[in-house]
Design a protein that fits this description.
CATH class of the largest domain: Mainly Beta
Oligomer: single chain
Strand order of the largest sheet: 1-2-3-9-6-11-5-4
Strand content: 5-15%
CATH superfamily of the largest domain: q2cbj1_9rhob like domain
Low-confidence stretches: none
Largest sheet: 8 strands, mixed
CATH architecture of the largest domain: Sandwich
Helix content: 40-55%
Order of helices and strands: HHEEHHEHEHHHEHHEEHHEEEEHHHH
């Protein structure tokens, strides 16, 4: 009996479920306080959030030891502390921000004219304007603006503090228009963009790994008073291990609504946070502020395979064999598909491949399994596979 109990306890430790979400435990995690001893290099601490002065960051960046010490403080703050750091005047000169804003506004106007542009993962359609892959679009339209904008030392130091060197930058512009409603509380990419059913298939150590594979950031492209709805955060919530299940539960959403913090930002300020921190864009209650932020999503250099594999070519070759075989069970056939086709929805082109009806677009594996279930002709499957591959390209 004892052995049976130990087996169950181990399974419960390794395979997290929604049942592991204890609100009282979550309250204990988020009831902590940020002290000056925790963040002695911060200019101030407001609502448990350490705030750093941009001029001090720039001065520290010139000295290797001071730079190392500052990045170490940020790393611990985002991992085991409040989960968030704010940089006042991350841009000493707002000119690069203003120049980038002009480009992004032009792109948004073009999207409106062409009735295009993506929606938002966690907000109602129409509440926001989005520019997907703003990084590439800015670079191709105005490389000189891109150079000045991403030369910023605060952005580079925050990225290295969390991910080390070799990180991969991506960005999306988000504009919450006057009257735009708040997002629902959530965690971010990777596991925050997958369903509860899907993440239940990942062991607990993968839940711990997911947040350290990406860094979330936001650069304010306008002044953001509280009434304009700057992002809501729940400090320390990233330390709750089953949190990728918890944010979907109504009692945790209510607690977030009651206990979140919100800080005003000025143009040129920046925020960086652990992607597992519970957060949500706020309600824009103004009649005139179009609240624009450049949402940075920075990925670890280690999030890539060692070999280049043409999975489209492989899937086209394998599909007829799986369609014709009668010796494999459905489970065995799915195992073969998993070894062949791409099982992850990202990276993709969210303009052409938006997450309609969910948090992520269809994967190559899902396309292949659906085609097998429908006995789709190999030529029709090949055409669908090509369309899928094209939709992911920039």
């Amino acid at each position: 009996m004892k052995a049976d109990n130990n087996v169950k306890l181990r399974a419960d430790r390794v395979w997290l479920t929604s049942d592991a979400c204890d609100l009282d435990e979550f309250v204990r995690h988020t009831g902590r306080k940020t002290t000056r001893d925790d963040c002695p290099l911060a200019a101030e601490i407001v609502s448990n959030v350490p705030i750093y002065d941009g001029d001090a960051i720039r001065d520290s960046s010139k000295d290797p030891e001071a730079r190392r010490a500052l990045m170490a403080e940020w790393a611990e703050a985002m991992l085991t502390g409040p989960g968030i750091v704010v940089f006042r005047k991350a841009y000493s000169d707002p000119a690069p921000v203003d120049a980038a804003t002009e480009i992004f506004n032009t792109i948004i106007a073009e999207q409106h004219a062409g009735n295009s542009g993506g929606g938002d993962h966690f907000a109602k359609p129409g509440a926001n304007d989005r520019v997907w892959n703003a990084l590439e679009k800015l670079c191709l339209r105005a490389p000189e603006v891109f150079a000045a904008y991403y030369a910023n030392v605060s952005v580079a130091m925050a990225s290295q503090a969390w991910l080390g060197t070799g990180y991969q930058m991506t960005s999306q512009i988000n504009v919450v228009n006057p009257g735009g409603a708040a997002q629902s509380a959530h965690r971010d990419y990777h596991m925050g963009f997958q369903s509860a059913e899907e993440i239940s298939k990942f062991p607990a150590h993968a839940h711990r790994l997911s947040p350290v594979m990406t860094l979330q950031g936001a650069i304010a492209h306008c002044d953001m008073p509280i009434e304009s709805g700057p992002t809501l955060f729940l400090p320390f919530s990233q330390t709750f291990e089953p949190g990728y299940f918890a944010y979907r539960r109504p009692e945790f959403a209510r607690y977030f609504d009651e206990r979140h913090v919100q800080l005003p930002l000025a143009k040129g300020d920046a925020v960086f946070f652990n992607p597992a921190l519970f957060h949500a864009a706020g309600h824009n209650r103004t009649t005139s502020v179009k609240r624009m932020a450049n949402l940075l999503q920075v990925s670890s250099a280690y999030g890539r395979a060692m070999e280049s594999v043409d999975r489209v070519k492989m899937a086209k070759a394998l599909y007829p064999a799986l369609l014709e075989t009668r010796t494999l069970s459905a489970g065995e056939r799915a195992n073969a598909v998993a070894a062949c086709a791409e099982g992850y929805a990202f990276p993709t082109n969210l303009d052409r491949d938006p997450p309609l009806g969910g948090l992520a677009p269809q994967t190559q594996q899902q396309l292949m399994l659906n085609a097998l279930a429908e006995n789709l002709d190999p030529s029709a499957f090949g055409a669908a596979l090509d369309r899928r591959a094209w939709s992911r390209l920039t």
